[in-house]
Request: fold
Amino acid sequence: GENVEQHPSTLSVQEGDSAVIKCTYSDSASNYFPWYKQELGKRPQLIIDIRSNVGEKKDQRIAVTLNKTAKHFSLHITETQPEDSAVYFCATYSGSARQLTFGSGTQLTVLP
Amino acid sequence: DAGVTQSPTHLIKTRGQQVTLRCSPKSGHDTVSWYQQALGQGPQFIFQYYEEEERQRGNFPDRFSGHQYPNYSSELNVNALLLGDSALYLCASSHDTSGWGAFFGQGTRLTVV
Reply:
């Protein structure tokens, strides 16, 4: 089955700096790569996603890049703000497996 | 649009008991997936329901079962509860079985004592 590895597990940045979270996956059939933000005690919230026919997608301060050959994708947050502090999860979806497989999460802390 | 709603929000059960968790999908969504999220970990896929049938199942024992109703709402049942079943149970809905754009509910926090 699919295996998704996410790094780093914790990340602290100064307000205004950029944050990068990386994920690798094993199933070459994976074709959808969402990122979720989960604040303490709240539901995972989809913040951005990318499909396998696209290499990069940007939405304001958030961007995701995908390298299908190397089987890795990354989340980039620019101009970080304290409200960006949360746990971020990457995930992959394989049409054959019909399930989202999540990484282990990254605790992002933005220091004011 | 209330999004995905789950009930109850918190639940305490005794080892060996049975529990039923409920989920109403986001309007326009017909597919429901259930996930277990242990503390400090990512969600783990339990199963997916579409057209009232279980379409896919993760690595969970038969103690975990589910149901989907004609109105697309769903239930997760867990029998013979173990201490290790303590977790946040999340329901996610999507408009088809692709899983793209899955929208999560706020979850049910289950504590087994």
